[in-house]
Write a structure and sequence with these properties.
Blueprint (H helix, E strand, L loop, with lengths): L2 H26 L5 H14 L1 H11 L2 H15 L5 H27 L4 H7 L1 H14 L10 H13 L25 H17 L9 H22 L1 H16 L5 H11 L3 H11 L4 H20 L9 H19 L10
Helix pairs in contact: 1-4, 1-5, 1-6, 1-7, 1-8, 2-5, 2-14, 3-5, 3-14, 4-5, 4-8, 5-6, 5-14, 6-10, 6-13, 7-10, 9-13, 9-14, 9-15, 10-11, 10-12, 11-12, 11-15, 13-14
Length: about 350
């Protein structure tokens, strides 16, 4: 994958997530069906990626899948039916993430830096899309333009093989050479990370929302580069160990922000490890972890009381993530600096 392709996919990630957040808060939040719309969107955007990932692996046209997701996201703006808008935007989001994610995973091989770069802009897009959606300006007509432009750029610049739209995916195979026992810890770590993200609360958060968003996004980017430098286990030890220590002081803005930065550094590591465990089904591996994100979101949606209250609980969650992740990473893998 060229740097241009990675830049296009990363920019598209920003725009797709921005547009989806805009739609949710501009056109759906005032609907009597708002809570159902929110559930349907998250189910389609995250849980549905697992079965769609199997289809994307087999279809072997990742750029076309990602471009179709961008187009569906744009079309969601035109739907007058709230439930249809939520489903269309969610499916569009899922297809984009799968198409782009498989292409980046295919190109990454034993490295994770590109994964961090690809996934990090989404958090910034969600933040800006939420603010944009809650504003009073007449911006609805502009919402589809970004995804449509990204769809065109992806279609023309996405990686292709033999001058066709085929992407060169591995032959679809759900066999896990390391065994499915490796995937369970990775799945649980992502559930815990999602739950943590939905439930951690800081008294100073309202004044630091933008800084926290940037810390979350940049942590994902930095995590990929750190893994390439140190290897997955040592990178996880450093990031989650320091995060746990800083969470103990998270009543203060600076250590709390740094803890969020460090805690999110393992996101590209878990994605890399899942794809490595299922080399013949990278789309399914990607979708498996987004399904874990959906499960971590459900308790907050259902209004269940949080099990995480205060700095000590956040620190324990970071350490628990580290312990679980050790089982998912297995033996230390040396970073492949020549890949």
């Amino acid at each position: 994958m060229t740097k241009r392709s990675l830049a296009i996919y990363s920019a598209a990630h920003f725009w797709v997530d921005l547009s989806c957040a805009f739609l949710l808060f501009r056109t759906l939040s005032g609907s009597p069906q708002w809570m159902l719309c929110l559930l349907l969107y998250n189910f389609c955007a995250f849980a549905l990626q697992m079965p769609l990932g199997l289809l994307a692996d087999r279809w072997n046209r990742n750029g076309l899948t990602a471009a179709a997701g961008c187009v569906l996201t744009a079309l969601a703006c035109l739907s007058p039916v709230p439930l249809l808008t939520a489903v269309t935007a969610g499916v569009g989001n899922a297809l984009f993430h799968l198409g782009g994610g498989i292409d980046v995973l295919n190109a990454s091989r034993e490295r994770a830096a590109a994964l961090g770069v690809f996934i990090s802009p989404g958090a910034v897009g969600l933040y800006i899309g939420t603010i944009w959606g809650q504003s009073a300006g007449p911006w609805l007509g502009l919402a589809p333009l970004g995804p449509l432009l990204m769809a065109a750029l992806i279609f023309w610049h996405c990686p292709k093989t033999d001058r066709t739209l085929r992407s060169g995916n591995a032959t679809p195979d759900l066999a896990a050479p390391q065994g499915y026992g490796v995937l369970l810890p990775l799945f649980l770590v992502v559930v815990l990370r999602s739950y943590m993200g939905m439930n951690q609360s800081f008294s100073w958060k309202s004044q630091w929302v933008l800084v926290l968003t940037l810390a979350l996004a940049l942590g994902k980017t930095a995590g990929g580069f750190l893994m390439d430098r140190l290897g997955p286990r040592r990178a996880s030890n450093a990031s989650l160990g320091l995060a746990a220590a800083l969470y103990l002081a998270s009543a203060l803005p600076l250590p709390g922000t740094l803890a969020v930065f460090l805690f999110n550094m393992t996101m590209p590591v878990t994605l890399w490890a899942a794809a490595r465990a299922l080399p013949g089904a990278k789309g399914f591996a990607f979708g498996l972890l987004t399904f874990a994100l959906f499960l971590g979101y459900l308790p907050a949606y259902l209004g269940w009381p949080s099990l995480l209250t205060g700095p000590a609980a956040y620190a324990c969650a970071a350490l628990l993530s580290l312990v679980i992740l050790w089982f998912g990473l297995g033996k230390e893998a040396k970073p492949c600096l020549q890949c």
